[in-house]
Design goal:
It is a single chain. The protein has an 8-stranded parallel sheet with strand order 5-4-3-2-1-10-9-6, with helices on both faces. Strands 11, 12, 13, 14, 15, 16 and 17 form a 7-stranded antiparallel sheet that branches. The longest helix has 18 residues, at 132-149. It is α/β, with parallel strands linked by helices. Helices cover 22% and strands 28% of the residues. The protein starts with 7 loop residues before the first helix and ends in a 23-residue tail after the last strand. It has helices at residues 8-16, 26-30, 51-60, 100-111, 132-149, 170-180, 256-265, 287-303, and strands spanning 18-22, 65-71, 114-119, 155-157, 185-187, 195-196, 211-216, 224-232, 235-240, 272-276, 307-309, 311-315, 318-336, 346-351, 354-359, 366-383, 389-395.
Length: 418
């Protein structure tokens, strides 16, 4: 069987590396993670909503794309949909004339960030949800509105929570995507082109396999779905800056060290990172959250400063990396040549016969934090038939930086909220 290969759109998405998730909706005003569709639309009234500030915050943190929860499981729509009265059109915000999706889409276009939209298949408000055929009609209309009304979409996010055991008409749903947004990445359901990493801690495990036959369905079950044989489906690691996905006044952001450790275990492992920034009930990202993001970005920039590119010479079983002169570094990045698919299954890096770094996956990028080393030439042993490197570099900034850790025992909430 031929090896599954990435599409140009998949590789473009993988190169983006880091995006921001925005969880915002009726839950923000109800103090809930999952509401049941009965919170009145009148509760939605963010007096200071500024989508431009959300996008600026994301861009300043280094994000290349943004995914907005246009409709979460409660069914409340952040755009004035013609399909239901449970939307911003029936709220006091902007006197019922507002459109959060439009404001976010315009801000993303203005600031040069890719736009993604989350449209929950599970809907706890729609009366037709109990009738699969009627709900498929309803959902296709909603998806068509989003795919035709807001410009090019980078990603469409189909969350599997609440849908285990439910059959949707994915052929019809995917036909909408194929017709109107053929370049959009499809997350995890239907005919996915990217997949969920399998946890909400934002962490990938070595090896990170881009070719899989199944995708995990939900944080709350052990079920998975087949994808019709081996397919190239690179993973996205979703995690919240805070513990919860929606804003709560008693929650707080993760430490800078925790966020650094997440970056090394997601972007640094060849997966994409989707970091959630929940706006508060004013419609603004809290000052403390923005300050923590700045701290994290500044520290990351210091660590990954002073890049020195290597000349890469591939040969059977490995590669040689040569720098213009001897260089002292604390970080090493390897990039696999993915033109013929993911092939590298293991790698070991040495300087003068001494191990510097080792692991399995290289993929779109593999970032190693290493004890400070000085070398002009590195040798890389590669496992896997036909594996080659496309590029490599070292970073000279903060070669003695401490190694960040995930707090012991940390787990994102795994109980399905009521």
């Amino acid at each position: 069987m031929p090896r599954p290969l990435p599409t140009p759109a998949q590789l473009d998405w993988q190169h983006l590396g880091f995006g921001v998730f925005i969880h915002f909706g009726i839950n923000t005003f109800a103090g809930k993670e999952w509401s049941d569709g009965t919170v009145p639309a009148a509760a939605f009234d963010p007096a200071m909503l500024d989508a431009g500030s959300w996008v600026r915050t994301a861009k300043e943190a280094g994000a290349r794309y943004l995914v907005l929860t246009a409709k979460h499981h409660d069914g409340f729509c952040l755009w004035p949909t013609a399909t239901t009265g449970y939307s911003v059109a029936h709220s006091p915000w902007r006197n019922g004339a507002g459109d959060v999706v439009r404001e976010v889409a315009d801000a993303c276009a203005e600031q040069g960030i890719g736009l993604g939209l989350y449209l929950s298949p599970w809907d706890r408000n729609a009366g037709c949800y109990a009738d699969p055929a009627a709900y498929d009609d309803f959902y296709v209309r909603q998806l068509t509105e989003l795919c035709t009304g807001y410009g090019p979409l980078m990603e469409l996010w189909f969350d599997g929570a609440g849908s285990v055991g439910r059959e949707y008409d994915w052929d019809r749903i995917m036909a909408v995507v194929s017709r109107h947004q053929p370049q959009a990445m499809v997350f995890n359901m239907g005919r996915p082109s990217i997949r969920w990493v399998g946890n909400e801690n934002g962490l990938a495990e070595d090896p990170v396999n881009y070719v899989v036959e199944r995708t995990a369905d939900s944080q709350y079950t052990d079920s998975s779905s087949g994808v019709g044989g081996p397919r190239y489906l690179p993973p996205e690691c979703d995690v919240s800056l805070r513990r919860g996905w929606f804003w709560h006044p008693d929650d707080e952001p993760k430490t800078t060290g925790h966020l650094l450790a997440i970056y090394y275990r997601s972007v640094g492992m060849g997966a994409n990172l989707l970091l959630n920034l929940p706006p508060d009930s004013r419609g603004l990202i809290p000052d403390g959250d923005r300050a923590r993001l700045r701290e994290w970005k500044q520290e990351l920039d210091r660590r990954l400063s002073g890049p020195v590119e290597a000349v890469v010479e591939n040969h059977d079983g490995g590669a040689t990396l040569t720098f213009p002169a001897a260089v002292t570094f604390g970080h090493l990045e390897l990039v696999e040549d993915l033109a013929d698919g993911q092939r590298i299954t293991g790698h070991r890096v040495q300087a003068d016969g001494v191990d510097v770094a080792a692991g399995m996956t290289v993929g779109i990028r593999r970032l190693h934090q290493v004890p400070a080393a000085t070398a002009q030439r590195l040798t890389v042993a590669l496992e896997g038939p036909g594996g080659k490197l496309a590029a490599a570099r070292v970073f000279t900034g903060l070669p003695d930086a401490s190694v960040p850790r995930i707090p012991e025992g940390y787990e994102a909430p795994t109980d399905a909220p009521g």
